[in-house]
Amino acid sequence: MEVVGVCGSPRVGGNSEQLLDRALGLVAEEGLATGKILLAGKRIEPCTACLKCRKERDGLCHGREDDLTPLFPRLYGAAALLLATPVYFGAATGEMVAFIDRLGYVSRGNGGLLNRKVGAPIVVARRAGQNFTVAQLNYFFLINGMVVPGARYWPVAFGGAKGDVQNDEEGLATVDDLARNVTWLVKLINA
User: pLDDT tens-digit profile of 142-182?
Assistant: First the structure.
C-alpha cells in the first residue's frame, strides 16, 4: 500500500512541497510506503478529450505522450493520493489542473480506477483562494469515487516566500492531523 503525494507547484522546494513532505513523513512513520511526484519541470499536457483512453481501456492516456503518461500505472496502483498545490489566481496551478483532468478522465473511462481510494488535498495560499482550491481538489476526488478524510480544519496553510509556511502553526497541525487520518483510513479500507 503506497500513499503517493503529488506536488503541483512549479517551484521545487516551495511551501506546497514542504507541507507534502511533512504529511508523507507522518504517513511513513505510521508504517505505510510513500512516494512523491513533482510536477515541476515536467511536461503535463491538457486533456484533449480524444476518447482514446475509453477505446483502449487499458488505464493509459493514448492522446498525449508527455511526462504524465508513464506515471499512470503507479498512480492507479496507489492506495491514496495526496495532492498539494499553491493557489494561483484563486485556483490550483495549471500543472495540477492538467494532471487531475487527465487522471480523472482516464479513470472514469476505464471503469473507475480511482474508486474507493483515499484522496486528500493540501493547499497553500499567500493570502486567499484556498477554500475554492480545496473544493476544486475535493470535487476531483468525489467525482472519481474516492474517500476524502477530514482534519481539524481545512487542509490549508499560509505562506508566500519559500519556508513561510513553517510559521503557520495551525496549518502545520492541520496537515499533521490530515496525514494521520489518511493513514488510518488507508489501513481501515485495506484491512
Answer: 999 999 999 999 999 999 999 999 999 999 999 999 999 99
Which grid coordinates belong to 171? 496549518
Whose CA is closest to 103, among 32, 16, 6, 23? 6
With pLDDT > 90 as the criterion, what percentage of the chain qualifies?
97
Helices vs strands, H then E, count in the chain? 6, 5
Determine whether domain 2-189 maps to CATH 3.40.50.360.
yes
Q: Nearest 5°: phi and psi at 5?
A: -100, 135
For residue 163, what is its C-alpha cell?
Answer: 519556508
Report the greatest alpha carbon distance in the chain: 49
4-36 per-residue burial string, b: 16 or more CB within 10 A, e: under 16: bbbbbbbeeebbbbbbbbbbbebbeebebebee
pTM over 0.70: yes
**Residue 188, burial from CB neighbour count under 10 angstroms (0-12, 13-18, 19+):** exposed
Q: 3-state DSSP call for residue 133? A: helix
**Mean of pLDDT values over 21-40:** 98
| Domain regions of the chain by residue span | 2-189
